[in-house]
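Encode chain A's predicted structure.
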Amino acid sequence: LESGQNNLCSSTIGSNNTVTVHVNELPVISGTTSICKDSTILLTADSLGNISNPWVSSNPSKATVTSGGLVAALDSGTVDIYFTDKHNCRDTITIRITAPPNAGTRAGSDSGCVGSSATLSSNGDGGGTWLSSNTSVATINSSTGAGTGGARGTTTSRYIGTGIGGCANETATH
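Encoded structure for chain A:
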């Protein structure tokens, strides 16, 4: 122990110049480490918090945290959340905040002939998936958006932006 570190343990000097040292366990934070922007998660700790607010965010412009451990994600990036227990021992968890996907606006031909081809597009995030609601009327390549008319009828095309880090998928329909 170094002088001045009495916040992590307590000591007593006995009659024979002996020192009794009490070392406390570190708290352990539990919870999800990925969250979607504009969402919340609840963190828990395995010990009692200190008298004031036991939870602190390293960057309140990215995420705030209540005294009960409820984290609100405000902006994309990473943030450390600290928990301090009643012995002033501290644990840290790093939270990754992800922006929700943007499926954008679906563009491309709304009609065609049996056997004709067209490529659909979206101005949203890349890496999503293309779908046709009726593959007998039109098939769509799931990654490129290239479509081919198969039979007379009606179908709905969809581009699904894939959510990551706790974010749900987003769909652009036409």
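Residues 1-9 have pLDDT under 50 and may be disordered.
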